[in-house]
Queue: 2 jobs
Job 1
Amino acid sequence: MAIAACLNAPTRLKKLMTEFRYELLATDGKARLGRIHTAHGVIDTPAFMPVGTAATVKGMLPENVADTGAQILLGNTYHLMLRPGAERIARLGGLHKFMNWDKPILTDSGGYQVMSLSKLRKITEDGVTFKSHIDGRKFALSPERSMEIQHLLGSTITMAFDECTPFPATEQQAADSMRMSMRWAKRSKDAFVNREGYALYGIQQGSVFENLRRESSEKLTELDLPGHSVGGLAVGEGQQIMFDTLDFCVDMLPANKPRYLMGVGKPSDLVGAVMRGIDQFDCVLPTRSGRNAQGFTHRGTLNLKNGRHRDDDRPLDDQCNCPACTKYSRAYLHHLIKAGEILGAVLLTWHNLAYYQDLMADMREAIAEGRMDAFARDFHAAQEGGDIDPMPIIED
Amino acid sequence: MAIAACLNAPTRLKKLMTEFRYELLATDGKARLGRIHTAHGVIDTPAFMPVGTAATVKGMLPENVADTGAQILLGNTYHLMLRPGAERIARLGGLHKFMNWDKPILTDSGGYQVMSLSKLRKITEDGVTFKSHIDGRKFALSPERSMEIQHLLGSTITMAFDECTPFPATEQQAADSMRMSMRWAKRSKDAFVNREGYALYGIQQGSVFENLRRESSEKLTELDLPGHSVGGLAVGEGQQIMFDTLDFCVDMLPANKPRYLMGVGKPSDLVGAVMRGIDQFDCVLPTRSGRNAQGFTHRGTLNLKNGRHRDDDRPLDDQCNCPACTKYSRAYLHHLIKAGEILGAVLLTWHNLAYYQDLMADMREAIAEGRMDAFARDFHAAQEGGDIDPMPIIED
């Protein structure tokens, strides 16, 4: 009996390890501490997912992205289908192998970038046709093709194909758009090839309208998908409207599954959204800002191009343990940026990713200890307190 | 007595460790295996020094440059004096601390870049005045100011201030230029602040004229400097004339001191120059080529932008252990380059630096084992053999 149980253990363990599931560990108000188990490993939530648009987190080696604490990356279906092509990546062994990242990868459905980047797009009930922003070649995306591409890429978490309703939209526009996305979600589910440890997330739409968000949630809940995202926010509505919408729309999604807020955001967005029950985030902000001389710190956001840093031998953020902060001065980072050196973009990107991961880890700790409110108060006070006083500039 | 000897040991050891000296370990024909001891550590020779123009080896973290095997970097006086300024770097703790590199640094004298990059330059016996290529500000360089700047930077190896004689030059032009450089070498020595483990190198000039190279060497030998370089080559004369000149000019320099060939070169240049007695090299080629899609391999130089690599899942160079070759395919490198991704430049730079360091390590081993001729034959055969056959391209 005891021997049989032992012999059986590896099988049960494997089952536990590879089944896709969300484990809720603690709550503090609406904030949730959790863990997502996937075929490619565990994701501690709330989690921030760095964006690896074109099979690379811009400027970073994947092992260094992992060093910052990232446990999952986001890849863009739109970019990868255009270049180098999903079939090509599949022949080369899938996206994980192609870009040398063995932890989970979430891919978006391509819909958002079709709307924001492509030319001459045409939307019908069937899907979207568009021309590539790179070379004008014609492409098509539909729920079925998006599922196929994400399958070819080998995504751990596949996103349903949807239309991101623009803001502002009338209630009628938002309803029509949301209902088409829900029909597309059903087609996405039908086309999705289920594999142990992999998942398809449905995307809630409905703009800022509570009744539409509810209708969307009900339709998604019927599909019984392993995770959900809140779509159609962070599209220009501003933080207050985003928070007001999250106040009612997050609770509508099943509590036993992860909830992902797409394309968000600034550090204060993350804090506010975690307090409203969000578990996953992605945003280009830390990486894009890193290439544009911006550094996120515990004392707010700094522009390292500013001459005030020219003679400053202090670290960018004295509370950060990343290489940019422990091995270099603000003066050096400023110099690299002024000289247009690649290393400036690399170090600031690294720092920003580390800052974001530290923020998530701090929030997870605060939720575990039931002090998320106090954490948020301290966070805002420090951000508003502003940077340390500048060092005197010396003209030679 | 025994106890006294023990107590004394650390002092003697420290003395041995910090004194700047060249140790000749073996010869094979004219090729020399050696070791340079400096205040910042040991340099195994023949050595290749990656170029860290503006206080960064472009695209690389310094720890990763060290990972390739580099034991010394080169910094450019001209670039650093203009931006961020030598006095500023000194206030920030010196170049080593500023750029987070604790091994030896060699700085050039600034003379070469003044000639190739600056505007409205004017040369007199005293020195050079010029306008910055960055913002047009006026600067001056002289033997004394060059020594001061290199001292402010904290260079392990300082180069004498010289004029790099252009090619072609008449014998009279070459003689006049060389003699001024020799007067400047004397002034450089007088201005150089000697410190334990640091060194000033003199630069041999004389273009392709044997009598002038001899005269230059004699004048430098009188100064009794701890090292020498061969200047005025790799300035457009081509490999054959460079080798023909090295055939006579290297032996003229004292054999008990290191000999450094400035600004060289291609892999085949390095092999030929090592066989003519050169111990140190620097060149932007591996780093600049890395940013321009070029990869140096055991089978010759490849352009990774070429579509032939698009579906190639094989490594760039199967004999290389760098991350670009062990973790990624040619198809991925090609994709990064086509997409204009920073990581493409980073990985190819890393590979090229690893290739150069591996080449130097292989030559050191060949010299130690007395088979440098055979090594050179095999090297040329492999280079001329060309790349592996391309993989079929699949059009989607």
Note: DSSP finds 16 helices and 16 strands in chain A.
Job 2
Amino acid sequence: MLGERIKVLLDTTRRLSRRGASQALTKILNKTHTADIALLFRFYDSRERRRIFSLFTDLERKAEVVAEMDTSIAVELLSGMTPDQAAAILQELEYDDSTDIVASMPETLAAEILARMESAESEQVEALMGFHEDTAGGLMSTHYFALDKETTAGEAIAALQTDEDFDAFYVYVINEYGHLVGVLSLRQLVRTPPSRQLKEIMIPDVISVTPGAAQDEVARIVERYNFLALPVVDESNKLLGLITVDDVIDVITEEATRDVLKMAGAGEELPEATTTLRENLATRFPWLLMTCIGGLLAAVLIHQYLDKRSFLGFVLSFCPLLLGMARNIGNQSATLVARGLDTGQFHISHIGQILMRELAVGCASGVVYGAAIGGVAAALYHTWGYSLALSSAVVASMIVAVLIGTTAPFAFAKLGGDPTQARTPLTMTAMDIVSVVLFLALAKTLAA
Amino acid sequence: MLGERIKVLLDTTRRLSRRGASQALTKILNKTHTADIALLFRFYDSRERRRIFSLFTDLERKAEVVAEMDTSIAVELLSGMTPDQAAAILQELEYDDSTDIVASMPETLAAEILARMESAESEQVEALMGFHEDTAGGLMSTHYFALDKETTAGEAIAALQTDEDFDAFYVYVINEYGHLVGVLSLRQLVRTPPSRQLKEIMIPDVISVTPGAAQDEVARIVERYNFLALPVVDESNKLLGLITVDDVIDVITEEATRDVLKMAGAGEELPEATTTLRENLATRFPWLLMTCIGGLLAAVLIHQYLDKRSFLGFVLSFCPLLLGMARNIGNQSATLVARGLDTGQFHISHIGQILMRELAVGCASGVVYGAAIGGVAAALYHTWGYSLALSSAVVASMIVAVLIGTTAPFAFAKLGGDPTQARTPLTMTAMDIVSVVLFLALAKTLAA
């Protein structure tokens, strides 16, 4: 339902952009929710992104769109502007958002842009850049509404009525040293007689985290206590910033993606269009290496039980290795694709691009591991023909497994099913059959 | 950190409960956050739960604790009371919470309790019970703050100051037919001159869902637009209820668990202490059946390439099946345990109980599939000794795989690591080696 609406928007804006119908396009963009525009940018190519972004004239709106975008896309877009333009936009963002973007830029560009921001702003960004992005410090916004504990409820309401930027639901209460001593909700504030002081009505027992707290701990706290925001304090309990529930939701989704991908040894986050083959290989390398080492170990152990030079004995002892390599790389592809489709980060129309990327990973890994495994087998057992067959079978079956693993979730999604369901044992068995049959056929031919 | 605090609380409350030190225990409980108490109840046994729950004298507090508990625990606890007591507590809950609990009770008990609730309350619960729990209707609370569009800002603030229950951050605006026509945040309301009407200041373009919307769609919308609550309306746009962001966070975690478990064919939710062996077997059956069918198919196909009655040919052709069965059931165990530890639903101290449960599943599945696979192999190839060996190898390797799969994540968690990391290819390879070596050894002995 949501998907359909975005698809129509995507087609319409693309068509208008191609025709150069800027006026009609601007009209549509102005009526579209910022979050939807950010989503559209995921599907545009670089040229479309530049062209369509240039149609926003209002600096604040530009900043809103940039804040909602995937960081990598924001970096790409801002890198294409003059540092002055980029700095002007970044200055409008919340510090936590601008920090994420600046931290992802090449260092020289980041420095150039920071130099062009007002010093108060760039100092905040530089301070936040000191925190790891997966910690409370990396998540927090330094934008919060805190008042002294002696303030009255009436003064507090007056203060928030004049604070242009106030956009929170809790009022934090601090003492004269800036230490966090209490919290109250906007609702409590509104329901209190104006003359009472905040210290009389606040909840004094505030749960907070330090900037070094891991993001999954932050998520666990917000989840458990149903908070809408969580304050971040330093060791002396001085209020530093605020983590809002919408950022926590992003963390939870991110952690779920990480858990799913880690289960298949496919890294920690979904690759983006800008991820290089080298990076993709590096992500998937350790898991395949462990499979390879484990499989070689299995081969040597199983070989103990078998005739040293029998053809079937050789095939059987390398069977767990061969099946393991194909299954694991196929499983990595299937997991990445299913998760991407599931979270909406990939779309069915991306199939060509993603298949090319996966096949590149499959071919490169296949050749490396095929050569290594064949080499080890030959060195151990001096069975040249069989080893060559094993080597070729590893290459071929890893490539075929990637092909099956990548296309199956797309096929499921296309048929209206759940792409995750493509990772059934039947898909795995298909990979098994291909691997073993390829091995046997190759061995018979090459060793004949 | 959080875990440490809970552990201390758990030990202290257990000790005091065993000593019958009710007064000291009550004092601690009164100082403990409801969410933490609900968490403690996950670790208490049934007797401790009853005893400790009885210490809460305040009905409202009882209701708060019940609302935060896992549904199955709440059902257990309320089932042990008289229907009058249970009804009194349930009446204090939000309708969405009481509905979840009543819907999970045996029908006769649910009817008895509903009959004892005030009719206005029980009607609401019965109405909500009509919605599937995985839909917007099942998630929504019928508790919201809506005012007519002609209301002035001043009247609105007065209304929410007198509404005892008001606990939201958005004010919904409806017309004379109860149709949702706008929304405004509490912050906007506070910042508006008192004489202006809501229709002048509201945001008229409200994103809402119908009660039939799937919960993952709800989550996607709240996530994309950073809402704190999402209204639910019927087809005519009449406001029915509200889904709050804390419920959405639970949905996102639930969906993540579902995704992770589905990847391993281990059902959709983590088993609870009350889940029966039969239910656990049913959950894991389809995935294992697919593995079995796929493996048999592979065996028949591979067999084509090999000597019909050769020992190694037989072993090789059933190799993918044997490895697949062991890997898959081991993987199911490892996935369940790792996810449970990861979300905090399981604790290291649960190892004995969970290992027993998993071993029961492993033994039962092993015997069923071992017998079936051995039978099919014997029927196809008339190799009785080999088939018996295969059968025994399937049973033994499935049990060993469950043992490895269950203990590995606990071991990782115990060593301070990430339990998810226990599911590496090395664990899988360990299962492979055990399977093949068992098969070969058994075949040599039994077929000799």
Note: Chain B touches chain A through 85 residues (CB under 8 Å).
